[in-house]
Amino acid sequence: MKNLFIQRIYDAPIDIIGDIHGEIDALQNLIQILGYDRDGNHKENRKLIFVGDLCDRGLDSVAVIKLVKHLVDNGNAQCVLGNHELNILIHSKREGNGWFFGSPHEDDDKKFNSKEASLHDRKMIIHFLSTLPLVLESEKIRVVHACWDNASIASLMKDKSKSVKEAYDLFTKRIEEHLTKSGIAQKARKEELGYEFQLKDIYSKVPFLKNLAHKHVVEQMNNPVKVVTSGTEAFADDMFFAGGKWRMVKRLKWWDQYESDIPVVVGHYWRNFNKREKKRDLFQHIDPLHWFGAKKNVFCIDYSVGKRYEDRQHQREFSNKLVALRFPENYLVQEDGIILKIKNTLNDHLV
Questions:
Q1: Which domains does the chain have, with CATH numbers?
Q2: pLDDT one-digit tens code per residue, 164-177
Q3: Whole-number Å distance between alpha carbons of 167 and 74
Q4: Contact yes or no for 246/255 (Cβ under 8 A)
Q5: How far apart are alpha carbons 176 and 185 in whole angstroms?
Q6: Secondary structure E strands in the chain
Q7: DSSP character at residue 23
Q8: Full-model pTM
Q9: Residue 13: count of CB within 10 angstroms of its CB
């Protein structure tokens, strides 16, 4: 079963930590609260699992990655690759990663105040991220950053690439050839150039650009590296503005079609305890303390710590906490020591 992209998860009690996004203080606090020493040892022989998105937006992504690397190197932690780490590996400049590529860049114009990586840091980070799997699994539990998709994981199992970047580039090349041959790429480019500035202006009126949307869906759904790190997508019902531009493609609730008995834990989707804050559509009818999906055995452990930069900008108390899921005990622990009981539980035979 073990290969470069899919690896076996620890056969031990585990603590699965959600997206950290450079918040080193939150991470150090949570690890201590969970009972680990600075090397990741635990008196009950527990192990740490990270769901990816270690970096971007927070104050010190370098320190977070160094700490996680230290824990992994000691054999006390495992970590899957998230879409933010993937962006670094494929040299994609996105919002919040100016700490690595140099800020400000085109998509990094917010005031994140992140510590910049040195040349030595960048080399270390690239090497470490290149060693991370995309999927962790056993007969008891599965961990992936964004999406458990059987077809994508089967493709990754067969792939003989020597690195995630190599696999990503190979799939991307095949997709580009298809888009060019079909004429979709040229039509999409024409639409994009026609609305180049309006697409980044929330006050502009932009029509639904069907060829551009088609291109985006094909690029996402035919690249298994993208699917497992950022999810499945389809045409949106209506245009919406998010992440600094108008979008025509929406995320899908893949968990409603997940039929396996093995539970899956993901990050990525910005879950939230704050009832005053408008929920994202994906979790509009899902309690923040519930397992969900077709068999009620999918759990998102990302509780929006990546928004702390907004709290700093407004000089207000942090509205979100870093959280760990204790498995198989099936309860949550916050960085401040508060224990949260999950309201619906997995079937006894699963835990």
A1: 12-148+258-350 (3.60.21.10), 158-253 (no CATH)
A2: 999 999 999 999 99
A3: 28
A4: no
A5: 8
A6: 6-8, 14-17, 47-50, 77-79, 135-137, 142-144, 233-242, 245-251, 264-266, 298-300, 323-327, 331-334, 339-341
A7: -
A8: 0.94
A9: 14
